[in-house]
Specification:
This protein is of the alpha+beta class. It has helices at residues 9-23, 40-43, 79-82, 86-89, 118-131, 144-152, 157-167, 169-174, 190-199, 220-242, 252-262; strands spanning 33-38, 54-57, 69-73, 90-95, 101-107, 137-141, 180-181, 205-208, 212-217. The chain binds 1,3-dihydroxyacetonephosphate (13P) and zinc ion (ZN). It holds the Pfam family Aldolase_II.
Length: 273
């Protein structure tokens, strides 16, 4: 007998995270998407893995992830609705052997599809797994203050990173590799996926100017926490600017001392010490 999949730990993580992201205002309407790499042992008690409901072609090559399972949010689905109707708003997919399709094993019960940002998610997973075998989660959301900062702040990665590090002492410790920034591009495309994944080789946060943020990590908590911390830095920056601007800040020397104390290596070229 199969266990009720709605009680699975990964399902609870998905419903809780989508609710939290909605509550924080970072996923209005259908904004944002999540994909979470699952292993066969986690799924087997809840799902017949031989029962494929639909095969959906993909127009890019995901063969590096052939046979991998993901729980993903649906395209056009609202994060606020996930908790009340997981089987409509979420799907469990397996990447087909040739990497050119995904097999739907559960969910998207109204005929829905995986997020339109699936190319970016899968390309990011491939890249992060190549540098971190513990990697599992990609979250995209429309974090308000980070988006705002992409209008008011220089889009140079080094400058943007230094400003975020200065805004909260925690930032450098949580993302010492800094943030990646790509140019504005049309979402949902292979091109934006490739550009984002290139950044993901060295960084777990990539900003899409005037759109949102992608975060990567080994757990849902870690990935959510990463985005939260960067967004907090951006929120403080917004308050600082509205209070009249920076009068004093954490110096580069102090940031380096912080890095030394927490044994993290700051991205090269950001601190001048
Ligand atoms: P989806 O509804 O297809 O996931 O798209 C939302 C989004 O944020 C696009 O960038
Ligand atoms: Zn988006």
């Amino acid at each position: 007998m199969m266990l009720d999949i709605l009680t699975a730990p990964f399902m609870k993580e998905m419903t809780k995270t989508t609710s939290n992201l909605y509550r924080l205002g970072w996923d209005e309407r259908n904004g944002g998407n999540i994909s979470y790499l699952l292993n066969e042992e986690e799924l087997a008690p809840y799902l017949d893995l031989n029962s494929v409901r639909r095969v959906v072609p993909m127009n890019f090559d995901a063969s590096a992830l052939a046979g991998c399972y993901f729980i993903v949010t649906g395209s056009g689905k609202y994060f606020k609705n996930v908790i009340d109707a997981p089987a409509l708003n979420l799907g469990i997919i397996r990447i087909a052997k040739d990497g050119r399709a995904y097999e739907l094993l559960w969910g998207f019960e109204d005929g829905g599809l995986a997020t339109s940002e699936l190319p970016t998610h899968l390309m990011n997973h491939t890249k992060r797994l190549s540098v971190d075998p513990t990697h599992r989660v990609i979250i995209h959301c429309h974090a308000t203050h980070l988006i705002a900062m992409t209008f008011t702040h220089d889009l140079d990665e080094v400058e943007f990173t230094r400003t975020l590090w200065q805004m909260c002492t925690e930032c450098l410790v949580v993302f010492p590799e800094g943030v990646g920034i790509i140019p504005w591009m049309v979402p949902g495309t292979d091109s934006i996926g490739k550009a984002t994944a290139e950044k993901m080789a060295d960084m777990r946060i990539v900003l899409w100017p005037h759109h949102g943020i992608f975060g990567a990590g080994p757990t849902m908590d870690d990935t959510f926490g990463l985005i939260e911390t960067a967004e907090k830095g951006a929120e403080v920056y917004t308050a600082v600017c509205s209070q009249g601007g920076i009068k004093q800040t954490i110096t580069d020397r102090q940031l380096q001392d912080l890095a030394d104390a927490f044994q993290v290596t700051p991205r090269a070229g950001v601190l001048h010490v």
